[in-house]
Amino acid sequence: AATNTNSLHPSGNPKGNPQLDTSGVCVQAEACLPEVECRAGKSERTPCWTANNTRGVCCAVPDSDDKLLISAAIEDGRREFKEKLGHIEQHRDEMAAKEKPLSLFHKLLKPSAGQEANGIKTDPKERAEAYESVFASRKYAEATNMTKEDRQGGRFPRHLAATVSWPYYGEFSSALCNPNARYRTYDGMCNNPVPERAAWGSAEYPFERLFTPAYEDGVWAPRSRSVTGNWLPSARTISTVLFPDVDRQDPQLNILFMQMGQFITHDIAQSQAVTLDDEKDIQCCASDGSQPLYGDKLHFACMPIDVSPNDPYYSQFGFRCMNFVRIKLACGPECYLGYANQANSVTHFIDASLVYGNSEAAAASLRTFQYGKLRSSHSTGIELLPFTRQPSDCVPWARVCFETGDFRANQLLAITQFQTMFLREHNRVAGGLNHINPHWDDERLFQEARRIVIAELQNIVFNEYLPVLLGSKKVMQFGLLDPVNGYGNSYSADIPPMTLTESAVAAFRFGHSTVDGFFRLLHRDAPAEDLHIKDLFFDPSKIHEPHSFDRMMYSFGQQSQQLADNSMSAGLTNHLFQKDNPFGFDLASLNIQRGRDFAVRPYNDYRVWAGLPRITDFYQLGEMGSLLAQIYESPEDIDLWVGGLYEAPSYGAVVGPTFSHLLAEMFYRLKRGDRYYFANGPEVNPGAFTPWQLGELRAITLAGLICSNVDDRYDFYQAPSAFYKSSWDNEPVPCASYRPLDLEAWRE
Ligand code: HEM
Ligand SMILES: [Ca+2]
């Protein structure tokens, strides 16, 4: 059964400070540690106070016999890992991805070489500890005959398998944190004032699990078996049968809603595939795509997707093996024995890290260091993102290619335009502040503009986007809305502000179903132009055309998004990142396989957590159940991403009850665990706004933000509820109707 490691809401201790009984609670073989540091131990753990006077739980620690076993296991584990590295050395040629035919799809998972400046480290040697820990944990579990249940429940003795210095890109000591710093750090360090929690939510910190994982070996072997003991169905088979391309337009919501979701994703999540140590991509299939590599030639991080010879699309190409490389692991500040966790290479906080970069070095490479501005380009006479110094970020025939704080920015036109909008907003605000406070220097202007842009983004996410996504009932239940007047003060240093694994690999990927196969660009005196996404991946050339920003933002507002349901556009399922290849990859397969790579538990466990009855018969899901029954042997097998999208949406929400509960739980943490959350007052937030400033920020909606940044404000019409298509009660109105942020509130 699933072990809920730390659901904070509603069953945890979400509100206030429940009184803890501190009277000698932990027994002899236990120590009191912060809950997130206690992967080991019992599922029902006793609360206690740690040595640092913070809240913790009683955690099992090893006795001396155990310690001997552990040391032996660690030695063995290291040896085995070294052996694997030896195989890699020997077969490097086969394992390294070839330029052709299909390696470009990695682009989304891995920054190009030379993006070191973006603060993203990709050298697996630096993370050897995480893998050594995996191999050691397996050895220990074998040596002590741990049951599968104990392994999956993380009931390993709490013992260091290795120590890593944190963060990976340099020496760090929490003593370097200034708890009163007015601005957040770029990499998210020092948000939590408790020294041993300084790294919480920072770039490279692992995703946080809601439930313990379902690794087959309890350590890192992917989830791969049905409860019947047979293999689970292939991810590609599930994709072709359960996610056909059916045009079902959302009657109300538009492409801006879809795009906001991906924009938020890129702020809070970026998992990267394991690479060879020279950063070359790993190949898991024979170069003709006919079969997987085998034996020592198969890299230990390979998990290729089996494509049936009868595949309705790929069979014509004889394509039988879809490359799939597992996500890099990370330990947090130290590596303990236990199950594997995956690294999130961006800051977990909603802090516009995709605009500013995830490290000081990344931010520096994006700044002009004059008047607080970000670098931009003006080759068409209007402001666009700066051109990249890394042309391999785009297809070779792209006429332009842009650089931002996130390397996924060129993926499709709409994400690139959102990045453009936030860049423009930063520079606009910095310019306005300079006008009002001419005595401020570059650094002050930059940081104040950044603080404002982050606040605007957080306001749109929590007060405008989430109510539509989750429905008003859910956002109320989780306290996700901010008060209309005054400070919110929702901060708790006990809430880990980490992106949830389950949301990153499943719930938040609901958005893939909402993507349409084309963008319809509207022209005033010419017919509409349909651009198919399969021709647009990593080619933002269109953005270089005159009026592209205004035309696209207006058009996105008029085009329906697709419903979040059991359908995916073929642009994503057969043609993902196709470029000039005859066929592309399949995002639905990747989502399903990714869930198994991270070993999130099957759908039923989360369903029950969300308060729904366990499914014991497929037909409890109605007509849709009969489709699932064609594929899965048991309702206990359903992959989380699949099950969530097979639920009908909750009343007034875009997604069904299980996904909305998971997403609410994650956003709850990202808000309440963020000391710098924009609505927090000066008691907790050293970067608090004044009540006047806060009122100004609360008034900015996405509609206002778009209007502040279009090329021609005097010739643009924007509907007030930007996520909804125009209708009689949501008519586009001239931009003059939206008051931009009044920077007078910042006069000093
Ligand atoms: C616009 C077209 C989009 C494309 C082409 C796209 C493509 C991708 C790809 C290739 C991945 C990595 C898949 C893997 O190997 O696991 C991914 C991950 C993801 N996508 Fe999308 N996506 C799109 C839109 C969206 C939207 C609208 C949302 C949410 C509303 C979304 C949410 C996510 C999330 C949460 C992840 C996991 C991120 C991580 O942990 O690295 N995507 N997407
Ligand atoms: Ca972030």
UniProtKB/TrEMBL annotation:
CDD domains: peroxinectin_like. Coiled coil: none annotated. Pfam families: An_peroxidase. It is found in: Secreted. Keywords: Glycoprotein, Oxidoreductase, Peroxidase, Secreted, Signal. Gene3D superfamilies: Haem peroxidase domain superfamily, animal type. PROSITE patterns: PEROXIDASE_3. This is Peroxinectin.
